[in-house]
Automatic annotation (TrEMBL):
GO molecular-function terms, A-Z: oxidoreductase activity
Protein name: NADP-dependent oxidoreductase domain-containing protein
Pfam family, one: Aldo_ket_red
Gene Ontology CC annotation, any one: cytosol
Domain NADP-dependent oxidoreductase intervals: 8-195
InterPro entries reported for this sequence: AKR_Detox_Biosynth, Aldo/ket_reductase_CS, NAD(P)_OxRdtase_dom_sf, NADP_OxRdtase_dom
Length: 210
């Protein structure tokens, strides 16, 4: 699947035409978008659907995890309405949901790297720590790893097709693949929903004051 990361100065129609060519020439089979806002996603999907013969947009790739649920405000509803599958990237909250940063920054971790530290740092603040602790508690009660709990949670969110795994080792990959048959009890899912809930207001919330 091909998916564009369009800069604001790039004409969207030009980018989508290139993707049409990629599908028509057999280079890719499906077209998706990545890191688009809801309105950009809707614009791309409806543009492609408006002209016969164009490759339909079938998926959107967005950061989504217990530590980053912003896509639930508008992107998830838009994707559902448009019939797009959601492919979450960084489903483990940039590695933080594994619990490895609970007591410091391991020397071999991204947070210990000057290059990657800014990528991880936003998820090392107190609110995120409370979510990580909830995941660790749930994992302990179920006899599984925090990684398995976090991956299962995002896998089962509405509209999600498959989380994108960023495993660096065979062990990490095997651990991530082990969640295929795993299910979280409803009460644990609800507890994780509650502790990681994001504020949603006008205009996303139904029944907002007028």
């Amino acid at each position: 699947m091909a998916g564009p990361r369009v800069r604001h100065r790039d004409p969207l129609e030009e980018t989508l035409t290139a993707l049409d060519h990629a599908v028509a020439s057999g280079r890719v089979r499906y077209v998706g978008v990545s890191n688009f806002s809801a309105w950009q996603t809707a614009r791309a999907a409806t543009w492609q659907a408006a002209f016969p013969g164009r490759a339909p947009v079938v998926a959107t790739q967005m950061e989504y995890s217990l530590l980053e649920r912003g896509v639930e405000r508008e992107v998830v509803p838009a994707a559902g309405t448009l019939g797009l599958g959601l492919l979450p990237w960084s489903p483990l909250g940039r590695g933080v949901l594994t619990g490895k940063y609970r007591h410091g920054r391991p020397a071999d971790s991204r947070a210990a790297s000057p290059h990657f530290e800014p990528f991880v740092a936003p998820y090392l603040e107190p609110r995120c720590s409370s979510i990580v602790e909830a995941v660790v508690t749930a994992a302990g009660g179920l006899g599984v790893s925090p990684m398995e709990v976090a991956l299962t949670w995002v896998r089962d969110r509405p509209g999600v097709v498959a989380p994108i795994l960023g495993a660096r080792t065979v062990g990490q990959l095997l651990g991530a693949l082990s969640v295929e048959e795993m299910e979280l009890p409803a009460e644990i899912t609800q507890a994780l929903d509650d502790v990681s809930a994001i504020p949603v207001g006008y205009p996303e919330r139904d029944g907002s004051s007028q």
